Amino acid sequence: MNITKVVQLIQRGQTALGIEFGSTQIKAVLISPDFQPLASGSFSWENKLQDGIWTYSQADILTGLRQSYAQLAAMVSSKFHVKIERIGAIGVSAMMHGYLAFDTNGKLLVPFRTWRNTITEDAAEELTKLFNFNIPLRWSIAHLYHAILQNEHHVKDIAYITTLAGYVHWKLSGEKNIGVGDASGMFPIDSDGQFDQTCLRKFSSLEKVKQYPWQIEDILPQVLKAGEVAGYLTEKGAALLDPTGTLEAGSVMAPPEGDAGTGMISTNSVRRRTGNISVGTSEFSMVVLDKPLQKVHRDIDIVTTPTGLPVAMVHINNCSSDINAWSQVFREFAGRLGKNISADELFSTLFLDTTKSDPDAGGIVNYSYFSGEPVTKTQEGRPLLIRTPNSKFTLANFMLAQLYSAFAPLKIGMDILTNEEKVTTDVMIAQGGLFKTPVVAQQILSNVLNMPISVMTNASAGGPWGMAVLAQYVSSGAQEKLKDYLDEKVFVDSEIMTLSPEQKGVAGAGKYIERYRSALSLENSASILKDEER
């Protein structure tokens, strides 16, 4: 598409904007009507452990929103010599789950409690039994009930609870609604794509809940499906997003979604028997089910696609943080030698070195736990590297152990689906920054899970682009079903590469996982080393 055509699209407001609040970056992507990225912007941030709670500040949420958009707008001005005055459609996505509670004046009652917190075990266990439906520790309802069980003072003043995506959407549009995929990480969803009425009644009947002046159904957001209009950008919302006053109000808003939903969109995995794996600070696999699971599993979440189809989700709290931390050490060392190495070159060099490794990582075992990990019943995060005197401690084996450790908890969870529930997929597509270096992480993941893994050419595009596609879908009028829209318009010319498991790699990964399981007691006992806030 030539620059003149792009300028006309921007001036006419025929674009769509997707903004996603990830664990380490807030990213904004502007796309054309044919789904091509035109510009992007980002803002780096980190969660903080404050008073035993993993959180992001409200100020950082809003600052990151503005700065990521400002960077995108500056790129548009630089590339196309035009300012963004109007945008056709906008969508917001974010890390799912967590707890944001507000009073009647819209005041945040307690600091944002993110998905990373594992303090809600008491509440999650009780609600799982009550609903006969798995309630993970990170779900919004688990956080709410935990606050109730702890007699937290703020609970009586709650007027609204939502997710991070729901909060930002509310600030931009004034509407208290949420996409069904994100909603399915707050509270169980029924077959109609709404909060399950039976579970709502059961929750309301709890003695400890009855004492409060609110009703659960009144403090939850309205649930919408992909393609439905979720409001419009208000004057206040436009000023929040673009304080320069250049951006006009009126953009149609898509239902805010979670990062799981945008992951399904960006990998075209919304049909039954399709699946995807998203890796980053956390990781998760999603399989769109063609039949219900036989029983409730504490390590398998039932969430939904952005249209409300049931999805089996294996969510892992820890994935790439330890790899990032070690790579920074290597980068510092290179700097001491006077070598300025880019992040992409560093990761590529380290990952490619794994081709020289022993299949089982030479006896090295690594735990990448920066926070608790429910799937292995680990309460607190303690990154840990273990080796014996006879382990082959080489750079290649060290890096393979790092990648194995990133995928090991996912393997433990996926075994429940494949071995116990006999769930199968027609395709499993992976995405995330680890796959920017071709082949390496993709092949290792295939070996660990012992299944073919596909990667699309947009493997690192991810959530913000997927959210922009959902916004464009709303803007188009959503005349066709989302699955057909993706097949026939969005991914019609997409390229995909599939790698199958290697026999030697599968055997080596299997040995690693055995050691990983057997040494978990060491990881769990490492919590004796008390963490200090820094």
Automatic annotation (TrEMBL):
Sorted keywords for this record are: Kinase, Transferase
Q: Where would one find coiled-coil regions in this protein?
A: none
Supply the InterPro entries for this chain: ATPase_NBD, FGGY_C, FGGY_Carb_Kinase, FGGY_N
CDD domains linked to this entry: ASKHA_NBD_FGGY_BaXK-like (cd07809)
Q: Does the keyword Membrane apply?
A: no
Fetch the PANTHER family from UniProt.
Answer: SUGAR KINASE (PTHR43095), XYLULOSE KINASE (PTHR43095:SF5)
Q: Which family does it belong to?
A: Belongs to the FGGY kinase family.
Can you say what this protein is called? ATPase
**To which species is this protein native?**
Lactobacillus melliventris
